[in-house]
Design brief:
Elements lengths: L1 H16 L23 E9 L3 E9 L5 E5 L2 E2 L2 E5 L3 E6 L5 E3 L6 E5 L5 E8 L14 E2 L3 E5 L5 E2 L7 E8 L5 E4 L2 E2 L3 E6 L13 E5 L2 E7 L2 E7 L7 H19 L6 E8 L7 E6 L2 E6 L6 H13 L16 H4 L1 H13 L5 H16 L8 H7 L4 H25 L6 H11 L9 H12 L2 H11 L15 E11 L4 E2 L4 E2 L6 H5 L6 E6 L9 E7 L2 E7 L2 E13 L4 H8 L1
Parallel strand pairs: 1-13, 19-20, 20-22
Antiparallel strand pairs: 1-2, 2-9, 3-8, 3-12, 4-5, 6-9, 7-8, 10-11, 11-17, 13-16, 14-15, 14-17, 18-19, 21-22, 23-29, 24-25, 26-27, 27-28
Helix pairs in contact: 2-3, 3-5, 5-6, 5-8, 6-8, 7-8, 9-10, 10-11
Bound molecules: zinc ion (ZN).
Length: about 575
């Protein structure tokens, strides 16, 4: 359960960009005598009403047919379903009328053609759920957080670009930041409510309240970072991570033209180390536990999601299910590798990340699945989802090594990534497996065909090469105990504990309340610590969550006889 929760985080990008294309929004229609009545303009007033309501007023021109289809607010991943905490939908004027079928998330407005429509509605949090929900609004007297899917709009903005104006009516002391800027109480931007990844307004985040907002200058372009809550790290440490990761990845891609980027960190109100994140339109949001001791988790989620700005958004797949091995696997590889290259991850931790991928791949009963099986099973069956990430990461590591061997160290997978960007995003083409194979052949020659067939298409077992992590790590075959938490991790209590497992031996019992958790990843060699409470009081219990069952697999061991040679491999 916990695994799925944590994993769904990395998987969330799939939903955000599923089915995307690269249609760029058009410029605002000009030349109209009355810009207010231009079909491309929509103006909102977003007003906070104490203690937990947002009133949204929307003004836009009716369709020239006199019947305007309007899409109502919906949850971030439930866009066909009306958000049930929307209320007080009101339409101003006598010659206008709402035709509401009462189901689904759209209504029609009947009016004189091209008339300026004024609609208002109220949003409240889903009180029954309690706590923070990343995909639905949080509105309270301290802050608000919501996604662009909460903005009602005419259906036509799925196909034509919208010129959006938002006027914010918020408490004076509140700060304000979002996917389009910060602090300005009147914002204007272009976008669409369609399924395209670039400029998609659904996939955006808006925050206001007691956020601490930092403006960073990265290669002369603006990056805004907003954070609230009390963390185990200083804002300076967090801001430095944002700066280094974004600067490092832009340098990697040699891509410095992004005019604006927004990153938000919001406490999720949960025990450690629950974590979530969304890669969004020119923005990223992370939801972590304030009790998390490890800055590495924030660094990794930011690195993974920000890399998707290219692998998924700028290098957008033609058919997502066919290229998850690349969009997730290569993203996962570089979310570690670039941090090693720029000096914010040490070599031992990088090797540990590769070993984690090997463990998750070798211990999976789906490890020999074909690419079609793994692609179709993504986000439907956990084992296939895992396979796309970790088998894909090993494909990246092996191809990196092969390109280095073939070029005698002159080239690496980095060059292949830049070529792929040239061949896809920069040429206006969508990513396909055929393009990847063609570019791979430019680096390794005729061997590309067999490698591609074995590593990607048919899913033959990949054995990590001895030299793939440079001169300071080598492969040994090891017997590894299988990971097993040993109980069902319910939201608050331990249940279905295995009486023969390590957790029981360490003192866990069914019914104990879980107060807090500490773990690094779901692998057998990292201990899990749980803070539990029962009649005897609260205490921490630490154990290795493994079974007696072992699996043989290759693992890298670090052997730093010559530290300078290690560095020369990744710097
Ligand atoms: Zn991802």
């Amino acid at each position: 359960m916990k695994f799925k929760f944590v994993f769904s985080i990395l998987g969330s990008f799939y939903f955000v960009l599923n089915g995307c294309a690269t249609n760029k929004p058009n410029a605002l229609t000009t030349g109209s005598a009355d810009p207010e009545h231009s079909p491309s303009v929509i103006e909102y007033v977003v007003k906070y009403e104490s203690p937990s309501t947002l009133e949204v007023q929307a003004s836009f021109a009716a369709d020239s047919s006199g019947t305007t289809a309007v899409v109502l607010p919906a949850g971030m991943y439930e866009r066909d379903k009306r958000y049930e905490k929307m209320s007080d939908l009101r339409l101003a004027g006598n010659d206008v009328k709402i035709d509401d079928p009462g189901h689904g998330n759209s209504i029609s407005i009947l009016s004189p053609p091209d008339k300026l429509i004024h609609l208002s509605y109220k949003l409240s949090p889903r009180a029954t759920q309690g706590g923070f929900e990343a995909d639905f609004p949080t509105i309270n007297d301290t802050y608000v957080h919501f996604n662009g899917s909460m903005l009602l709009h005419p259906e036509r903005f799925a196909t034509i670009s919208a010129h959006v104006i938002i006027n914010w009516d918020l408490p004076k002391k509140w700060t304000l930041a979002n996917s389009y800027g910060s602090e300005k109480r009147r914002q204007e931007f272009e976008g669409n409510f369609g399924k395209t990844s670039i400029g998609n307004i659904y996939d955006t985040v808006f925050v206001a309240g007691d956020f601490r907002v930092y403006s960073l200058d990265i290669f002369s372009h603006s990056v805004v970072f907003a954070v609230r809550g009390n963390w185990k790290f200083s804002d300076k440490e967090l801001t430095e991570v944002v700066r280094k990761v974004i600067a490092g990845q832009r340098t990697f891609w040699n891509d410095f033209d992004e005019p604006y980027y927004f990153a938000a960190l919001v406490p999720n109100g949960k025990v450690c180390c629950r974590i979530g994140g969304h890669g969004l339109t020119q923005s990223f949001s992370a939801y972590l536990s304030e009790r998390d001791q490890s800055l590495d988790r924030f660094t990794h989620v930011l690195s993974h999601e920000h890399f998707h700005h290219w692998t998924g958004e700028k290098i957008a797949p033609e058919a997502w299910e066919q290229t998850y091995w690349f969009t997730e696997g290569f993203t996962e590889y570089y979310s570690w590798k670039i941090n090693l290259m720029i000096g914010i991850l040490n070599y031992e931790d990088f090797v540990d990340a590769v070993n984690t991928a090997i463990y998750k791949y070798y211990s999976s009963d789906k490890r020999l699945a074909t690419n079609v099986e793994a692609g179709n099973g993504m986000n439907k069956e956990g084992a296939y989802t895992v396979l796309n990430y970790y088998r894909g990461m090993l494909v990246a590591s092996e191809w990196d090594a092969e390109i280095r061997r073939k070029s005698h160290g002159a080239k690496s997978l980095h060059d292949l990534m830049l070529s792929l960007y040239d061949e896809t995003g920069k040429s206006g083409k969508l990513l396909t497996n055929a393009i990847v194979e063609k570019v791979f052949a430019e680096y390794v020659g005729t061997e590309a065909k067999t490698r591609f067939e074995n590593d990607v298409v048919s899913g033959k077992l990949i054995r990590p090469s001895d030299d793939a992590l440079g001169p300071c790590a080598h492969v040994v075959d090891k017997k590894i105990n299988r990971y097993d938490l040993g109980f069902v991790n319910g939201p608050t209590k331990i249940s279905k504990l295995n009486p023969n497992g390590n957790g029981y031996a360490a003192g866990l019992r069914d019914g104990q309340e879980i107060l807090d958790e500490k773990f690094k990843d779901f692998v057998p060699w990292d201990p899990v610590s749980l803070q539990v409470r029962d009649q005897a009081g609260a205490r921490w219990i630490t154990y290795y969550s493994v079974t007696g069952d072992t699996i043989e697999m290759p693992m890298y061991i670090v052997d730093r006889k010559d530290p300078d040679r290690c560095k020369s491999w990744y710097q």
